[in-house]
Specification:
Radius of gyration: 22 Å
Strand content: 25-35%
Number of strands: 17
Order of helices and strands: EHHHEEEEHHHEEHEHEEEEEEEEE
């Protein structure tokens, strides 16, 4: 069963770990909603549907033809993401009455882990960094790409609707875009009148924008200076579904962990390690699409 980090945190008795997970998910709409599948081993091999089976009409006495879907076997390896945080013993002893130094230092390290995951979730490319995992830009199939134009163009609601329709088997569960693209969408909504973009509170009590009932997520690692034809100021918007048959995270048992390494020999400090064996899998290409060439 796949669980989000939010649900997984409820099963933990480690107060420090709960605080780390809250920090990790707070500014990441992806980690708030992305379900993670726990796997045993260093990776997962699964079948990604490549071509659907067909059906036909027959007359009485006709010979029936057999037709089965075709699959492509994919192997996704877990990667090691994390970092060490050192808590100076002098500061911890002399300033502990002001704040919990360990919690503050580990929270900052957890924030950097979240930022690295969010960046890799979009831009990860194992061809450039074999230690990482492939992100949405690499996972998205060529046939699932909608283009604004040869040299890009300003976002339109018609193109956004086309992107949504490119995801099959139900509506997308998130539209992921840059802050600039969100501003453009808000401007389009104001021009079109009320009701195009609606707002409501999420499970964390914060206001979230919805387009056509689909939550809008912002990722700061979707670049606004991508090159499309002769334009060098374009961006990308992603539409995706979450789950074991769509886009899901992979994690080792226990998920995100806090490991107390202990006292250091070379300095008066204690080390804590934030560690995560993690990756991302796309089980069906039709569950992910992108709109490229979005200009300001």
């Amino acid at each position: 069963m796949a669980l989000t980090l939010t649900e997984g945190a409820k099963l933990s008795n480690d107060v420090l770990l709960e605080g780390v997970i809250e920090t990790v998910i707070y500014d990441s709409p992806i980690l708030q909603r992305l379900p993670f599948i726990e796997i045993v081993g260093n990776g997962l091999t699964y079948n990604r549907e490549k071509l659907s089976a067909s059906a036909a009409f027959y007359n009485v006495g006709d010979t029936w033809s057999e037709d089965t879907p075709t699959f492509r076997q994919i192997t996704t390896a877990l990667t090691i993401l994390g970092g060490d945080a050192d808590i100076d013993n002098y500061i911890a002893r002399t300033r502990n009455n002001v704040q919990d130094i360990e919690a503050a230092v580990v929270a900052l390290k957890a924030k950097s882990v979240q930022q690295k995951f969010d960046d890799t979730f979009i831009n990860g490319d194992t061809g450039d960094d074999a230690k990482s995992f492939d992100g949405l830009d690499e996972l998205c199939a060529a046939g699932q790409t909608v283009a604004m134009g040869t040299n890009g163009a300003t976002l339109t609601l018609d193109k956004l609707d086309e992107l949504i329709d490119t995801v099959r088997g139900g509506k997308p569960e998130m539209l992921l875009m840059s802050r600039r693209s969100r501003r453009t969408l808000n401007k389009l909504a104001r021009t079109a009148g009320g009701g195009v973009v609606e707002h409501d509170r999420d499970e964390l009590g914060r206001m979230v924008a919805f387009y056509d009932g689909i939550p809008i997520g912002v990722n700061d690692y979707i670049a606004d200076d991508q090159t499309t034809g002769t334009s060098e100021d374009t961006s990308t918007i992603y539409a995706l579904q979450f789950g074991e048959g769509a886009v899901a995270g992979l994690t080792a048992p226990g998920g995100l962990t806090i490991e107390r390494v202990g006292a250091l020999e070379t300095k008066d400090a204690t080390r804590v390690r934030v560690k995560w064996y993690v990756s991302v899998a796309l089980f069906n290409e039709l569950k992910l699409a992108k709109l490229s060439g979005v200009r300001p």
